[in-house]
């Protein structure tokens, strides 16, 4: 009897630790992550029930958390997750609309006099495409097929070419709209709009670091990236008559709208929206008519992605739409761009819908398993066990933050960003929130003295922590042995590009990502200043 009581007391206190250990061991067996998370949750749930630690109602709690509200009503109470299929659809449709192909072509012309022009074009294209889609696999494959053969044909070193493509194509996981940020907002119960805007500067910082590295390297060692010939891409003269004709039509539309409002025929015209649509239609029309000229190339290459960025992020900035609504706007915008590029066919639409369904199902399957795991983990006092462990180790707030960042970085060698996000954030975010007052001076805030100030400080710390984790998770796509971007790239790269070249090429970019992470740690306003300017305190 005493032995049974000792075993019961031990399991009551340490069941959460065994649950986490079982998950770690199961993941290394190669079992699908969603099944591992859900299966362990069920097994340990029944163990807890058999020991009278929990009752059967805990499984109903897990179902309710998966639905995001009252699970019994059958109504989805979590609209944030609706953004995921919309963003997946947008990214997949853009892959089919040849926007990236036109963008890369004109960027080569504009940057041809700069050292490493083609690599810089890939970096800029990756940054712009990141702001239109967060589908990393599609971005890596698309950019590899478009840019890698050209870079190799121009004499670029395979390591530099492959490293540039892999790093630039994965910027979409940080620069909004990002599926990872949507999931983070849901797990942390914070505003996805704040996370979107807070990730802009860190994402651009990484892009800027890549840009500076490529220019410096190619200036010191020009043999790694030969200059483009002057006549590499030929463009004809602009037909000014076509330009004047289209501009006249657009001006006439605006004048008619203005006359209609002033005469009372049409009231409450949204002039900013009207002007934006007129500029967009004008630009696309000129771009199509003058596609083989410098002006046409710029309009055809730059306007479509910028249009989509403004539709998605601009609608959030302006307060016209919530992030979930903006995702729907972005999905519609990708259809518009595909139609303008004459790539919107029944076959393409079928492929896009099919891939969207499969990708969304995969993400939600893992999300369901992770939600069940975190619910059971909390109910068997796993969070209390972690807090006790941290107190026993006598880790201060900064030591804990550094340990967490190192842990996320090391996990990136073996697991996908989705798995790390869904496992780490629900477990450690309450601990970070509890230690928020210690970070107040670093964030430029005074020590809180009332409930409102405490809530504000906790929110700021959580936003900062989320952006740090997101920046850190950039490395998970590049670090061997399981960096998914590396395998996407190798799968479609020419046979002359060896895996050793890819591994060699990504090392400098992983170092740059860690430098970017350090900058966000030291200067938290990189993540916090812009959301406060847009949405206010």
Notes on the structure:
- The longest helix has 34 residues, at 346-379.
- It contains 24 helices and no strands.
- It is mainly α and 537 residues long.
- 74% of the residues lie in helices and 0% in strands.
- It has a domain at 1-77 and 361-380.
- The chain is globular, with a radius of gyration of 26 Å.
Structural class: mainly alpha
Number of helices: 24
Number of strands: 0
The radius of gyration over CA amounts to: 26 Å
Straight-line distance between termini? 59 Å
What level of helicity do the residues show?
over 70%
N-to-C SSE string, H for helix and E for strand:
HHHHHHHHHHHHHHHHHHHHHHHH
Describe the biggest sheet? Answer: none
Strand content: under 5%
What is the average of the pLDDT values? 76
Low-confidence stretches: 70-76
Approximate shape: globular
Brief overview:
The protein is an all-alpha fold and 537 residues long. It is 74% helix and 0% strand.
